C-alpha cells in the first residue's frame, strides 16, 4: 500500500454502481456483492465505512438490496444513470468529504463517461477507485483514467470485484 493509499485507509468509501452496465454476476446476489466489495476494498487497505448506491432501471425489489446494505436508486437509461450518479456523488461529497479525504468507487460500463468529474474529485483531494467490466467499450483508451488512480487509487474488473477479487 502506498503512503497516499494509507492516507485514505480509514476514510469513508462510497460506491456508485451502475447495475445495468455491471449487473450482478451469475451465482451472486446483492448481499454477496456487498460483502465481496467490502472484502476487495479491505484487501487493498481501505478499511473505513463503506456505503453502496446501486443505480438502475430494472424492476428490482428495493427491499432485496436494502436488506443487503445497498441503497437502490432507479435512474432510467444510460445517460440518466450517469447524470444521476454524478449528482449523487457530488451530494455525498458535500455531506461526507472532510478536506478531500474520501474514497469514491465508481462502477460503470464506461468510466470515461465520468472522466471530467473524476478529475475534479481527484483535484479536490478525494481518492478515485474504479471498476469496469472486462468488455468495457473504451478499455483501450485508458490514459485519462490511469492518471486518476496512480496515486493511491485502485482499479478492478467488475467481475473480479463482485467476487472479492484483486484485479
Structure description:
This protein is α/β, with parallel strands linked by helices. It has a single domain, classed as 5'-nuclease (Rossmann fold, 3-Layer(aba) Sandwich). Helices cover 38% and strands 20% of the residues. It has helices at residues 3-7, 30-43, 62-66, 78-96, 115-123, 143-149, 158-162, and strands at residues 13-18, 50-56, 70-74, 103-107, 127-132, 154-157. Strands 3-2-1-4-5-6 form a six-stranded parallel sheet, sandwiched between helices. The model has no long low-confidence stretch (mean pLDDT 83).
Summarize the SSE layout with pairings:
Blueprint: H1 3-7, E1 13-18, H2 30-43, E2 50-56, H3 62-66, E3 70-74, H4 78-96, E4 103-107, H5 115-123, E5 127-132, H6 143-149, E6 154-157, H7 158-162
Parallel strand pairs: 1-2, 1-4, 2-3, 4-5, 5-6
Summarize the structure.
By secondary structure, this protein is α/β, with parallel strands linked by helices.
What name goes with the CATH superfamily?
Answer: 5'-nuclease
**Multimerization status:** single chain
Report the top-level CATH class.
Alpha Beta
At CATH's second level, what is the architecture? Answer: 3-Layer(aba) Sandwich
- How many DSSP-defined strands? 6
Number of domains: 1
Global Rg: 14 Å
Kindly state the percentage of residues in helix.
25-40%
Mean pLDDT: 83
* Biggest sheet features: 6 strands, parallel
Low-confidence stretches: none
Structural class by helix and strand composition = alpha/beta
Order of helices and strands: HEHEHEHEHEHEH
User: Per DSSP, what share of the residues sits in E-state strands of 2 or more residues?
Assistant: 15-25%
Amino acid at each position: 500500500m502506498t503512503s497516499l493509499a494509507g492516507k485514505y485507509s480509514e476514510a469513508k468509501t462510497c460506491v456508485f454502481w451502475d447495475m445495468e452496465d455491471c449487473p450482478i454476476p451469475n451465482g451472486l446476489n446483492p448481499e454477496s456483492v456487498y460483502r465481496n466489495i467490502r472484502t476487495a476494498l479491505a484487501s487493498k487497505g481501505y478499511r473505513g465505512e463503506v456505503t453502496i448506491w446501486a443505480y438502475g432501471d430494472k424492476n428490482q425489489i428495493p427491499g432485496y438490496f436494502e436488506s443487503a446494505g445497498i441503497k437502490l436508486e432507479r435512474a432510467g437509461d444510460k445517460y440518466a444513470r450517469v447524470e444521476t450518479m454524478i449528482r449523487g456523488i457530488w451530494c455525498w461529497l458535500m455531506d461526507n468529504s472532510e478536506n478531500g479525504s474520501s474514497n469514491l468507487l465508481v462502477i460503470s460500463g464506461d468510466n470515461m463517461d465520468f472522466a471530467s468529474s473524476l478529475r475534479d474529485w481527484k483535484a479536490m483531494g478525494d481518492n478515485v477507485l474504479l471498476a469496469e467490466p472486462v468488455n468495457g467499450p473504451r478499455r483501450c483508451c485508458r490514459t485519462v483514467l490511469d492518471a486518476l488512480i496512480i496515486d493511491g487509487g485502485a482499479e478492478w474488473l467488475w467481475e473480479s470485484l463482485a467476487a472479492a477479487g484483486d484485479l
